[in-house]
């Protein structure tokens, strides 16, 4: 994996099934699971992490594909960004494919996985706001063949955490068959880490708009009031695209203000502290992304 890896881990186990991987983790509580290793090996090489053992997940074929299940797509945690970026997957879940294509340079997309994005839970993970907007759930494999399912948002928020010996095996995503989009801003030209990102999906069956903002907080943020407000203005039975441009602009500002709010007024009654310039710039960026995402979804 890297020239530093042999010095970092004394044991490397390569199970062939998900249950074998769980058993390996149960047998070696100090072991660290690794799939693409894009974040793990960066931590190893920088000296931040020295795992006593590794459990490699690259040979587990059952988590490297996807299948249809009851109106959902069951995605294996081992799906790479490169695989999710292909046209056949883009026809299935367009926003997640767009996030996968934007995840970084080819070497990152070829190695990084969907499950790794979730478990690492880096604020800049491009797949995370998409999964939040889609209200996806994760299926967790545990000891003795046990399985449990929780919302992705619960895992990212720390409401429900992985227990010892558990692995994220699959991600269940509803197939909405409706417009959805993902947009991100970076600090430089070309692939790079997000400074802000927005995922937006339309749900005509529930007459709803779901939006999630990434990279501006430790986990994706859902501006629920902005979602409900703009959904009430869309003509779901007629021409959805016929929406006043002022509404899309106001939606962007609504989303940005919800995710990057003004500071609370001082309790002593003094003048409120203004947002710093960096936060003002970030708010404008989020507003622009949300406005464009809604416009593209409705077009």
UniProtKB/TrEMBL annotation:
It holds the Pfam family FAD_binding_5. Gene3D superfamilies: 3.30.465.10, CO dehydrogenase flavoprotein, C-terminal domain (3.30.390.50), Uridine Diphospho-n-acetylenolpyruvylglucosamine Reductase, domain 2 (3.30.43.10). Keywords: FAD, Flavoprotein, Oxidoreductase. InterPro entries: CO_DH_flav_C_dom_sf, Diverse_Substr_Oxidored, FAD-bd_PCMH, FAD-bd_PCMH-like_sf, FAD-bd_PCMH_sub1, FAD-bd_PCMH_sub2, Mopterin_DH_FAD-bd. Coiled coil: none annotated. SUPFAM superfamilies: CO dehydrogenase flavoprotein C-terminal domain-like, FAD-binding/transporter-associated domain-like. This is CO/xanthine dehydrogenase FAD-binding subunit.
């Amino acid at each position: 994996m890297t020239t530093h890896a042999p010095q970092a881990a004394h044991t490397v186990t390569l199970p062939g099934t998900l249950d074998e991987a769980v058993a390996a983790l149960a047998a070696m509580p100090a072991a660290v699971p690794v799939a693409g290793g894009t974040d793990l090996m960066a931590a190893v090489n920088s000296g931040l992490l020295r795992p006593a053992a590794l459990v490699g997940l690259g040979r587990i074929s059952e988590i490297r594909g996807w299948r249809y299940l009851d109106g959902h797509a069951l995605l294996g945690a081992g799906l790479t960004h490169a695989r999710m970026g292909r046209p056949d997957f883009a026809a299935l879940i367009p926003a997640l494919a767009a996030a996968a294509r934007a995840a970084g340079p080819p070497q990152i997309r070829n190695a990084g996985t969907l499950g790794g994005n979730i478990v690492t839970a880096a604020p800049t993970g491009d797949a995370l706001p998409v999964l939040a907007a889609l209200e996806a759930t994760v299926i967790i494999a545990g000891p003795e063949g046990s399985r449990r399912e929780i919302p992705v948002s619960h895992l990212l928020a720390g409401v429900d955490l992985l227990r010892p010996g558990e692995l994220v095996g699959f991600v269940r995503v509803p197939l909405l068959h409706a417009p959805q989009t993902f947009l991100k801003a970076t600090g430089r030209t070309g692939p790079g880490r997000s400074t802000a990102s927005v995922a937006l999906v339309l749900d005509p069956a529930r007459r709803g708009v779901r939006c999630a903002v990434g990279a501006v907080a430790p986990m994706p943020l859902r501006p629920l009031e902005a979602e409900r407000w703009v959904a009430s203005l869309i003509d779901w039975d007629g021409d959805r695209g016929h929406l006043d441009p002022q509404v899309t602009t106001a939606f962007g500002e609504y989303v940005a203000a919800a995710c990057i709010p003004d500071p609370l007024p001082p309790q002593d009654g003094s003048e409120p502290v203004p947002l710093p310039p960096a936060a003002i710039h970030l708010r404008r960026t989020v507003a622009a992304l949300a406005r464009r995402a809604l416009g593209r979804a409705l077009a």
